[in-house]
């Protein structure tokens, strides 16, 4: 697995660590899951946007 160096404010990192401990996960696991969730939401948002644009185009072309 590749390693990545991130710059995160210490206060935010402390919050991440607290949350990871509550979830009984490692910091890395928590951050990976957060990024997966963000990416899924972005893809779904883009798909909704594309569908809305397609519907608008269909209405304009009718």
Describe the structure.
- The chain starts with 9 loop residues before the first helix and ends with a helix.
- Helix 1 packs across helix 2 (27-61).
- The chain has helices at residues 10-22, 27-61.
- The protein has one domain.
- It is 77% helix and 0% strand.
- The chain contains two helices and no strands.
- By secondary structure, it is an all-alpha fold.
- The protein is elongated and about 55 Å long.
Write a short abstract of this structure.
This protein is mainly α and 62 residues long.
Structure keywords:
62 residues
In round numbers, the mean pLDDT is 87
The total of beta strands comes to 0
| Class from helix and strand fractions | mainly alpha
Return Rg in Å. 19 Å
What fraction strand? under 5%
Structural domain count: 1
The succession of helices and strands, N to C, reads: HH
Helix count, DSSP H or I runs of 4 or more residues: 2
Helix content: over 70%
Low-confidence stretches: none
- Ends: how far apart? 52 Å
Major sheet size, sense and barrel closure = none
Shape: elongated
């Amino acid at each position: 697995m590749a390693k990545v160096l991130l710059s995160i404010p210490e206060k935010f990192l402390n919050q991440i660590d607290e949350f990871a401990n509550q979830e009984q996960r490692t910091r890395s696991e928590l951050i990976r899951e957060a990024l997966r969730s963000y990416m899924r939401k972005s893809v779904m948002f883009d798909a909704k946007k594309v569908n809305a644009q397609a519907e608008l185009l269909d209405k304009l072309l009718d």
